[in-house]
Design goal:
The protein is an all-alpha fold. 57% of the residues lie in helices and 0% in strands. It contains 4 helices and no strands. Helix 3 packs antiparallel against helix 4. The longest helix is centred in the last third of the chain and has 18 residues. It is globular and about 25 Å long.
């Protein structure tokens, strides 16, 4: 079963890691309006552009989404491009 981007992102939370992706994951966890069931790049990107003031740069999202796609492509039969 394909996991949402949020579910994947939560696997990257680590309170001992202060890197950009771990911080993104922690802040998304605290963002109660984050679209938790979404997996579409454009929908997530639009949300974060309007509400992701906790991201130092949208490239953090881009890099994390690329990791998500690679994980879904390798880990699941339902991965998309």
């Amino acid at each position: 079963m394909r996991q949402s981007f949020y579910q994947f992102l939560m696997t990257l939370r680590n309170p001992n890691d202060h890197g950009e992706i771990a911080n993104f994951a922690q802040n998304a966890f605290l963002d109660q309006a984050f679209p938790k069931q979404e997996d579409d790049f454009e929908a997530l990107s639009n949300y974060l552009e309007l509400n992701g003031n906790y991201l130092p740069s949208m490239s953090v999202f881009d890099d994390t989404y690329a990791m998500y796609q690679a994980h879904e492509h390798v880990g699941g039969k339902h991965g998309q491009n």
